[in-house]
Write a structure and sequence with these properties.
By secondary structure, the protein is of the alpha/beta class. Helices cover 36% and strands 22% of the residues. It has two domains: 167 residues, P-loop containing nucleotide triphosphate hydrolases (Rossmann fold), CATH 3.40.50.300; 113 residues, 2-Layer Sandwich (GMP Synthetase, Chain A, domain 3). Strand 2 and strand 3 form a beta hairpin. The radius of gyration is 20 Å and the shape is globular. The relative contact order is 0.15.
Length: 305
């Protein structure tokens, strides 16, 4: 544990869906702790990843993407994102360089003035490899005209460009004090939830259209074995009967591929052998069940209209 003269604090990563928040979190932490896919709105709960830079411990909060909510789950996700802002010492707004100042970004800027009036806000323009330098400078100027950012960083979360500069700036911006987590801890999610998120990521990557948003994964069993391996039993809840067949695939090929991929990633994460068993259960009303929201780390009441 670090001594009291160190620094420690919370950094909330916010932005539109697919801005690259989860990719940035994983790079900052140096390990995969947040689900990353090409699909939007895949991060559901506030996921904390712990990074160290010199004497500073930075606790990153990867929030769900900010978007116009339609369903109870959507509303709870957006509420979780803004709650992450309220709890943070510094807020990082991520935008995509090639998309510029979208209506969604405009809405976030307007809400920031109201929801984070006393929080320092940093702008991170991501995916800089997709645009020309003059366009980047123009976008930076336009954004800083709209909001009083503490600093602006031009980064590529995927390739690592500019990420070190951002991390060093955040480290010195953390308030003085003892570290909040043990030095070797990289996330504050229970292993059961991390395992469930890994499986959900593999499902999301393999499935198409709306189906990934109509399912959730929960770890029901975690059995530590004498030989050092672990047995993990998970349930995939689906809202419609037809979804069960899609997830299983012809001859069970889809769920087998998902299980193999998730098992390999979890074994690498834990550093030991994993026996993963998946079941698919029909639960038509799971999108409106308090217990499902609690398992995802969301507040059920935040989803009320």
């Amino acid at each position: 544990m670090a001594e009291a003269q160190g620094r420690a604090g919370f950094v909330a990563l916010i932005g539109e869906p697919n801005a690259g928040k989860s990719t940035l979190l994983n790079r900052m932490v140096g390990a995969k702790v947040s689900i990353v896919t090409h699909k939007v709105q895949t991060t559901r709960a506030r996921i904390r990843g712990v990074a160290i830079e010199g004497p500073s411990q930075i606790v990153f909060v990867d929030t769900p993407g900010l978007f116009r909510p339609r369903r109870r789950l959507d509303r709870a996700m957006v509420a979780a994102a803004w709650a992450g802002v309220a709890d943070a010492d510094v807020v990082v707004l991520m935008i995509e360089a090639h998309r510029g100042v979208t209506p969604g970004v405009e809405a976030i800027l307007g809400a920031l003035a109201e929801r984070a009036p006393a929080r320092p806000v940093v702008l991170a323009i991501n995916k800089i490899d997709r645009v020309r330098a003059p366009d980047l400078l123009g976008l930076s100027a336009k954004m800083n005209e709209r909001f009083a950012f503490e600093e602006t960083f031009l980064i590529s979360a995927e390739k690592g460009h500019g990420v070190g500069d951002l991390k060093r700036w955040l480290a010195q911006a953390m308030p003085p004090g003892p570290w909040l987590y043990p030095e070797d801890q990289i996330a504050d999610l229970p292993l059961r939830m991390i395992a469930a998120e890994m499986t959900r990521e593999k499902l999301t990557l393999r499935l198409h259209q709306e189906l990934p948003y109509q399912l959730t994964v929960e770890t029901e069993g975690w059995d530590e074995r004498k030989d050092g391996s672990v047995r993990v039993d998970q349930v995939i809840f689906v809202a419609r009967e037809g979804h069960r067949g899609i997830i299983l695939g012809r001859g069970g090929e889809t769920i087998k591929a998902v299980s193999q991929a998730a098992r390999a990633e979890l074994a690498a994460f834990l550093g030991r052998k994993v026996h993963l068993f998946l079941q698919v259960r029909l639960r038509p009303g799971w999108l409106n069940e308090r217990e499902r929201f609690t398992r995802m780390g969301l507040d059920f009441s935040d989803g009320e209209p």
